[in-house]
Amino acid sequence: MASKKKYRVLTPNPRMYVALNELHGLWSDENKIIETDDKNIYDYLLNFSGFQDVSKL
Length: 57
Description:
Blueprint: E1 7-10, E2 17-19, E3 25-27, E4 33-36, H1 39-45, E5 52-53
Antiparallel strand pairs: 1-4, 1-5, 2-3
């Protein structure tokens, strides 16, 4: 079984919260990274100013 691709996004600040809807959201870790395996969430996060793709690092 192939593992899902992990997308990694660098946020401007550590421990940053991004609301996905009224009930759910994601926190960045102490290294300013949010990890997700959902391509739609990944694309959504990259729309914010200061958010960068670091999936290949």
